[in-house]
């Protein structure tokens, strides 16, 4: 450290292919939207852009929920927005955990002064509705059930409709983490009756990190408005945020919206609308099947049972005796390709190959399989060499 004038030039990042757990590759149209001129966040033109964004988020979430907005901070802040608004001190919250993000939900509950009741499932498996049913029976005082739709740490997908139905039968509202699912795999907020849901901009929406779309049902808004205690976070208190994003032109100042970041999200949602939600879901599934053919031909396997596998997050086994960090390092340095490491209980046990948003395409699948095959073969790993790309090619027509 010194007080002399620093001699630093512009930061020019390398051009990578992002196939990890997020951020995913950002579409060039989104990058150029970010560079448009900044205007005031209360400018009438900005306000109408926000209205468009809201209707496009409603489309992405498949909801008519009035309170559907991007929180001005990353997915973790969307998580916190749901918990601090929905949970009051003394409440009991049932948290279903089958990976890293369920553990963060537990911490949120505790920091709200409430009591978490944990329903645990093995990492790599979906949340078991039978276990939730038992917990609901054993804890009639519970007011909320929280779970992760798409566990990014394992690649497992849980049944939001079934879990929500159970929670409602016991008069609980639900909080759903859809950070990795939005835009990549079906989410139907209204049809499934979800109460509070949050996502992130940098996974299957292919936008830059830093924004968290959330949606609250009427029942959830009613709960937020009738709280006995003030929300402990000033910034995330939706009673205040609604004054800025709410109906009508009464846009009062709450915080300075991240203007250019919102241009980016707007463009991401335009892209999603142009492609069509169903087509985006189908594309993620198709590319997952092509990747799977190559991965399995190589002799690696998936840790999640087939029926619960997320197409956008592929947790695959590491061949025996291989230094998994060295492989990721070589992919990054020699191929400019990022794949993810295992997290938590799966650290050192899996790689996480993301096929999220704009990054979910055949070119990336072939590139990733070819690069992985090359590096593993060079390292003498016990895999079937030279067959992954051909197997993936053969799968293209079939999926
Ligand atoms: C990435 C992720 C988050 C956190 O989002 P950030 O934008 O990193 O704060 C939360 N939940 C899940 C399931 C995620 O994948």
Layout of helices and strands:
Layout: E1 17-19, H1 28-34, H2 44-61, E2 67-71, H3 75-86, E3 92-97, H4 100-111, E4 115-120, H5 129-138, E5 144-148, E6 150-151, E7 156-157, H6 160-169, E8 173-177, H7 189-192, E9 196-198, E10 212-216, H8 218-225, H9 238-245, H10 259-275, H11 277-298, E11 313-317, H12 324-335, E12 337-341, E13 350-354, H13 362-378, H14 388-396
Helix pairs in contact: 1-10, 2-10, 5-6, 11-13, 11-14, 12-13, 13-14
The structure holds pyridoxal-5'-phosphate.
Concise synopsis of the structure shown:
The protein has helices spanning 28-34, 44-61, 75-86, 100-111, 129-138, 160-169, 189-192, 218-225, 238-245, 259-275, 277-298, 324-335, 362-378, 388-396; strands at residues 17-19, 67-71, 92-97, 115-120, 144-148, 150-151, 156-157, 173-177, 196-198, 212-216, 313-317, 337-341, 350-354. By secondary structure, it is α/β, with parallel strands linked by helices. The strands form three sheets. Strands 2-10-9-8-5-3-4 form a seven-stranded mixed sheet, with helices on both faces.
